[in-house]
Amino acid sequence: MVATGTPDLHRARLAVTTIFALNGAAFASLFARLPELQREQHLSDGGLGLILLTAALALMVAQPIAGGLAVRNGSRPLTVAGGVGYLAGLALPALAPSQLTFALAILVLSAANGALDVSMNAQAIALERRHERHIFASFHGAFSFGAMGGAGAGALAAHAGLAPQTHLAIVAAVLLTILLAVRGALLPASADAQPEGPRLARPSRALAALGALAFCALMAEGSVTDWSAILLDRETEAGPAVAALGLAAFSLTMGIGRLSADPLTERFGRVAVIRAGGVLGAAGLTLALAGGSAAPGIAGFALMGAGIAGTFPLALVAASSQGSVAAPSLAAVATTGYAGFIAGPALIGLLSDATSLPTALSLIVVLCLAITVLAQAARARGGEAGRTPRT
Q1: Whole-number Å distance between alpha carbons of 138 and 14
Q2: 48-99 per-position pLDDT tens digit
Q3: Which end of the chain is less packed: N or C, by CB atoms within 10 Å?
């Protein structure tokens, strides 16, 4: 791996960082207003969970297709197309006149986001391979900071009484304008296009283990993203504005944790970083569930964000070294992970209907502990140039 240090590489890194941040801002903007949308649609926790489950199916179909397209055509055109589709449709769930159209809107957004996620991660891997240091997790940090901004803006919008429809339409217009402004600085399609390369990753025990690690990490992240505001709103009587701060705190520490993951990995290695994070994540969520008021709940979500921040990006880095080209392996692990991200919150909704939301979220504490067991799957391999921890 060689550092180029050229201005074009710096511009490409800034562009990819921006797109990760836009994705996070869009996602959190929608889910920060989810309690209001749930009430407007008269959905139970189980009903909302089933809608999120259909979205998981759309994402699971979209991501492997996106991985094959990224191999054939390069990740740049798919990044732009996926981003435009995702942002252009951001306000659709808020505009939906019925539960059916609400479900369809969530499904379409999930498919577009699946394509964007695989392609932007392929861009990030291509950039890391041209850089002298670990930088991949920093892109996921940008996603988290974008999510923090989106959640914070959502809290302000809710406090000001701005309707979700208006708020999300404004967010979509602003983010789409930024995306179109930076798209020209992305690495060209030739940087990672391999028309003769494999379209799908070859199944292996290593990829299956990394997929399980990604599944646990993103089921935990997705459950907190989807249900943290609802938990604080309902269990602490915090109200929509304060309740949204739980997601904002979680996103803030996720961002800081992901910025820290690259240097920590160089110092201690991926396995140690992931294991320690799983323990901290379990402790943080336990605090959030036991708090009984908004302050410890927000603090607990912040600790959890710091703990699990690096798990998914480090699993993707490990996956990118599994095959001759990165995109199919990335897609395989990302698909498994995002199945947890979407299907996990659906399961939480169903369990909440049967028990209670705090009891349902206790399952995520168990998954955080499972991360510590699965961490070994992300160990560095001999073919990873420049990927050994410092001593």
Answers
A1: 11
A2: 878 877 887 887 788 888 878 887 788 899 999 999 999 999 999 999 999 9
A3: C
Residues in the chain: 391
For residue 362, count other CB atoms closer than 10 A to its CB.
15
Report the 10 Å Cβ neighbour count for 97: 8
Tokens of 294: 């908004």
Ranges of H-type helices in the chain: 7-32, 34-40, 45-73, 75-88, 92-95, 99-128, 136-159, 164-182, 205-235, 239-268, 270-290, 294-308, 311-320, 326-354, 357-374
From residue 190, give the alpha-carbon distance in Å to each of 9, 103, 282, 319: 14, 37, 42, 22
Q: pLDDT for 36-52, tens place per residue?
A: 899 999 998 888 878 87
Question: What is the C-alpha separation between 366 and 95, in angstroms, rounded?
Answer: 37
- Which of 244, 94, 245 shows the shortest CA–CA distance to 171? 94
Neighbours of 1 (CB within 10 A): 12
Q: Model's pTM, two decimal places?
A: 0.77
Tell me the CA end-to-end span of the chain in Å, nearest whole number: 20
Distance in angstroms (rounded) separating the CA atoms of residues 19 and 16:
5
Rounded to the nearest 5 degrees, what angle is found at the Cα of 203, between the Cα atoms of 135 and 192?
Answer: 40
